[in-house]
Amino acid sequence: MLTQRKVIHNEDEDHLDKTLSIDTAKSSSDFETIQIQKKDEAFSLAWEIDCVPASYLLSYYLILAPVCNNAKGKWVVDDRRPLYSGFGCKQWLAPMWACSLMQRQDFAFEKLRWQPKGCEMEEFEGPKFLKRMQDKTLAFVGDSLGRQQFQSLMCMITARKDRSDVLDVGNEYGLILPPGSIRPNGWAYRFLSTNITVLYYWSSGLCELEPLDVKDPQTEYAMHLDRPPSFLRQFLHKIDVLVLNTGHHWNRGKLRANRWVMYVGGAPNTSKKIANMGRAKNFTIHNTVKWLDSQVPKHPHLKAFYRSISPRHFVNGDWNTGGSCNNTKPMSIGKEVLQEGSSDHAAVSAVRWTGVKLLDITALSQVRDEGHISRICITSSPGVQDCLHWCLPGVPDTWNEILFAQI
């Protein structure tokens, strides 16, 4: 269910500060933000005597121009979709997420495109993306849904085609396969044509994990809720666009299975308030975003995003209690999503008054219950449905279109 909230602004404070994003094609290859403070009386006087600087005048016009709110809109049918094929993106796409390789019969969900209300979102094109991101690095850091967004983007850039000019540079970021592991902690690929690197690092809790006994294979791990992932501290200077996410790993079962123990201030957590899983998650998100905000002035080239949570659609139970999501036909076509503000209040609170932007995908994804892997999952136990991860191509492609529009 979607909820609608009323947002009340303090006009005396809100009208003074305006932030503008200038199209890189009109300024420079760097991502730039111009902050303008309007003082009504002084501006009016300057206007009357015709002495307003051209740059100030341009900025004033841009303030008046409508800003596209990509979180509001509706899903529409577009026969040009999907942007790639699950059959044709085997170089990047994990088979467990390519629903076309499984037993799914209805693929109408692949034909939907997100249409923001009152404006047109810039159309994603692989060559345009490679040119815009030339000599830059884009990193996804988060859980398996962050990995889905990463694989989606790789497929979108290459548009169904295998690429021999893409170099695996995971070793530059320590993304190698540890002994005894099924997969590395992430992947990094460089497109040699424009020297753009796209990478993913697995950090489901967005905090530092430290083995308590490196000699013990069954050691517990300190889950430092007040420390960002060490990967970020080590490689942030090499990243130009960063997308963070976390959420669904914050439950007791995951912590027990991974032998993670909450730590705060370098010691086991003793606060009963933080011990609550929801509060622990929010505490961690706030700390990581706060740290990242402190780093933005040191890395002026960096554009950082926190992606709001991806919704689950389990009905009549959870993943381990018979929950299902059997709908396969889109029911959201033409239905508008018009709520004010994000449904992910924790994300909104974390990024408020920081240099980290919100990539809000929650409400538009909430109405796409037919897009999950559902009962055709090839890796789950009998009777267990996947109503968390998405079929690819699918909804995460739209997350990347919105990201592309914002960078």
Low-confidence stretches: 1-52
Number of helices: 12
What characterizes the major β-sheet? 7 strands, mixed
Shape assignment: globular
Structure classification: alpha/beta
The proportion of residues in beta strands is 15-25%
Mean pLDDT level:
85
Membrane topology: Single-pass membrane protein
Family: Belongs to the PC-esterase family. TBL subfamily.
Domain Trichome birefringence-like N-terminal: 68-120
Subcellular location: Membrane
Structural account:
The structure is a single chain. With 407 residues, this protein is an alpha/beta fold. It has a domain at 68-199 and 294-405. It has twelve helices and 17 strands. The chain has helices at residues 11-14, 40-48, 54-64, 126-132, 144-158, 230-235, 252-258, 272-275, 277-295, 345-351, 362-366, 395-406, and strands spanning 17-21, 33-37, 73-77, 112-116, 137-142, 166-168, 186-191, 196-202, 208-211, 221-224, 241-244, 260-264, 267-268, 303-307, 356-359, 372-374, 386-390. The strands form five sheets. Strands 6-7-8-5-11-14-15 form a seven-stranded mixed β-sheet, with helices on both faces. The protein has a four-stranded mixed β-sheet with strand order 9-10-12-13. Strand 14, helix 10 and strand 15 form a beta-alpha-beta unit. Helix 5 packs across helix 12 (395-406) and helix 9 runs parallel beside helix 10 (345-351). The radius of gyration is 22 Å and the shape is globular. The chain starts with 10 loop residues before the first helix and ends with a helix.
